[in-house]
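For homework, think about our next protein:
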Amino acid sequence: MIQKWFGIPALLLLSVLLIAFSSTFTEDDQMELVRAFERMDVEATRYMVHHGGRIDRRLTGEEVHQLADGLADELSLGDAQIERRSDGTRLEAAGTWSRNIQVELTVINDRPQPQRVQPYLAIRVSGSELHRSQLLQVRNRLHRALHQYRIQPRTHFSIQGTVSMERADRHGREALIRRVMKALGAREVESMRTDRTTSVSAYTPLFTGGLKTGGGIMNVQIAAKAGQEDRQMILTLGTPIITIEY
């Protein structure tokens, strides 16, 4: 998840990465990840729908503020708060859509000197309970708000949950990820393995689009680590990448 303590450069780096994957996830992509959880008896605990990237047109400084205020209103959030830093101006607003859905809006002008700029926009909608109808409503509401301001949606979906395993060590993580990849018909593109976490970037023909990496084209990320309880694993999936803390 993109935490507030992340600096503007880190957010903009993620923006470049996500823009490279120009298409937004489809409803079918989203449901494939949900079905993968269901087939493996994973108890979903969190999900996130994330939009991130620079907008396609140039705005004046005043228009950047108007965009932040307008989107905050459209998304039923509180007033946008301004924070000026050495690396740019950041406008943020937050609110809830229900008791279990939190929404965060961030608009960044990292080039305050030019007369017109293309600000970076991030919207994160996260939930703690997973209902299929709710997921569709969240995606549609976010897309409506973006279209209202002539912004092309670049949304990505992540889901996280817990699953019981006989082993919660490295071997258990590898076994769990192999099961997920088999369920998605995916092949590994590249990976990162530490003592605590295994993260695999993969490609599946089930999903649209793809993100070019050093190892090839990927469109799904799978991560597993040991949970808080014995024989418990935390599984996180995202398309094309995970945008939630794992």
About this structure: Residues 1-22 have pLDDT under 50 and may be disordered. The helical segments are 8-20, 27-39, 61-74, 132-148, 170-184.
